[in-house]
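Board work, copied verbatim: Probable GTP-binding protein EngB
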Amino acid sequence: MFAAEWQFVTAAPTTEFLPPMQGVEVALVGRSNVGKSSLVNALTGRTHLARTSVTPGRTQELIFFRAQPEFMLVDMPGYGFAKAPKDKVDAWVRTIRAYLRGRVNLARVFVLIDGRHGIKAVDEEILDLLDKAAVSYAIVLTKSDQVKTTEFAARLKETQEKIRRRPAAYPEIFPTSSETGKGLPELRAAIARLLAE
Ligand code: GTP
Ligand code: MG
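↓ predict structure ↓
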C-alpha cells in the first residue's frame, strides 16, 4: 500500500468539509510541532506531500491523503502550543475532537508524543476522549534521533507507565524518527494490518 501513488484529497477546516466516509481511515494527532506532517512524508516516502515547518502551527486543516480507494491517511492541526491566534487554535481543537468522536470509519488514531518531552496534559485530554469514544489508538514516540538513547529509553518507560493506567486495551507504542527512518517499517506494517482486517 505504501508503494502506491499518494494523492491529496482535501483540506477540511471544519467538520462540514470532511470528505465522504469511504474505506479505512488512519489519523495522526498530537501537539503542534511533534512531527505529524513529517511522519506523513516519511511513511509515504514523499518528501513534500504534507507541509512541515519549524514553527508550531503549520497544519491548519484536516488534510486527507489517499493511497487506494479504500485507504485514507489524515494529517491534523496540532494542539498545545501552536503559534496562531487562540480563537483559531480553539476552532481546530473543536474540529479535531468532533472528527475523532464521530468518524465511523476511523480504524486507528496514532497519537504522536514528542520523544524529548513525553506525555503532557493536553495529550492526556485527547487520550481521555479516545478512551471515552472507544476509538482504537496507538502511541508514536517521535524524534528519537533528537535525544540521547538513555533519555529516549526513559521517555519510553515513562510513557508506558502512564498508558498502563488507561482503560483501553494496552496500546502499542512505536519509537520512531522521521529523520533516520527508525520505527517506520513497524508503523507501516501496523497500518497495513488494519487494511487486512
Ligand atoms: P503542526 O503542523 O504545526 O502541528 O506540526 P507537525 O506536528 O506537523 O510537525 P512537523 O512535521 O511540521 O515538524 C515540526 C519540526 O520538527 C520540523 O522542523 C521537522 O523537520 C521536525 N521533525 C519532525 N520529525 C522529526 C524527527 O523525527 N527528527 C528530527 N530531528 N526532526 C523532526
Ligand atoms: Mg503539521
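The chain has one domain: 7-196.
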